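Design review, sub-item: ligand-bound model
Attendees: FS, YL, KQ
YL presented the inputs for the pyridoxal-5'-phosphate complex:
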Amino acid sequence: MLSPLQIKKDFPIFERLGPDYSYLDNAATSQKPYSVIRAMEEFYELHNSNVHRGIYRLSEEATNLYEKSREKVSDFINSKDSRQIVFVRNTTEAINLLSYTLGRELKKDDEILITILEHHSNIVPWQFLSEKGVKLRYVMLNPDMTLDMDDLQRKLTKKTRIVSIAQSSNVLGTISDVKEIGKIAHENGSTFVVDAAQSVPHMPVDATDIDADFLAFSGHKMLGPTGIGVLYGKYDLLDRMPPFMGGGEMISAVYQDHSTYADVPQKYEAGTPNIEGAVGLSSAVDYLRALGMDQVREHEKDLIEYTLKKEEEHNVPDLISYGPRNTEVRSGVYCFNIGEMSPLNINDLAHEEGVQMSQAIHPHDVSEMLDDGNVAVRSGHHCAMPLAEFLNVVATSRASYYIYNTREDVDRLFNVLVKVVKKYGR
Ligand SMILES: Cc1ncc(COP(=O)(O)O)c(C=O)c1O
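KQ shared the predicted structure:
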């Protein structure tokens, strides 16, 4: 098991926040350990220069650090070949890259299959292709908030060119069997994309074993800095696809009327890259590897199990939570409301003077009051508005855990929640 209190000592921000502060917004971004901050400082202090260009030693050092980071990330997700790792800004950019490049081959009436639990960054980039007449279809959920695999099979047709699915939901915590879905997608001849923004930071992810064609994640959710993310792609596909952005670094030669492109992965890394970001991410990978990703997953599983147990024990009036109860398919994400937050309810409240707030306390108010109690949670639609509509809520509050969270954090969440509810006269 992990020792979260020991781990906390590696994170300078917890010195500032003190022992009684519960940071529970890790699905949005994680905190950063000293080692990651130090690795980036050291890059600027000792090795700063541009990569791939200089023949001088300093530039070779920077290039080595940058390329070593690529190898480290490649090992971390078992990509087998570091040329299959493209550095991007974040998951959002990775999926936009795919929409632009894969999208160029699509034509009218081709279909892309996603699910109703996707983050906007795995919806909106694909919606751009509707201009070409490409259709987006959504797999729905079972009552237990897992993916409805029958619906997936029904909606997967010969027109389905791309299947793109989140391995772990940032709202429900649903963990989907992407290996199985990949198999089904490939049997159908579809390209398979995994949004791994909420999985790579929290559990062992093996891109080769999943047999994903593409897999995207963000450094900042896994102890690394903002502004660095990863697109894993199978070499042959990356080699075949057209580039995304044009400019320096991504070319082989430029003529007045055309250009030839650099080999993969440089072909997709136009302009000066985020060198210190890659260095920071590499250090984050070291940190996570030392803990062991199996241990990380076990720890978060324990926290969500404990959360669901506390939920039953505390019996907070009108508490509604969302997501699978089976923690085998549930990550450390806990979305909840006090009362029904359906759009209809909100309208009723707005229009009928004096209506008792028995129905709901707005998640923004809940979050504010939790903040007063030193519990940091996110509230809103969590960039998954189609899912909110599916759940018939306008918003929820969300607690999301990571390696430094403890059962005491969960206790604090429920203790403060009970006070919030009391304040509203329940
Ligand atoms: C499932 C999922 N996909 C994609 C993203 C987008 O990540 P980023 O904002 O780092 O691009 C997020 C961020 O919360 C997410 O949870």
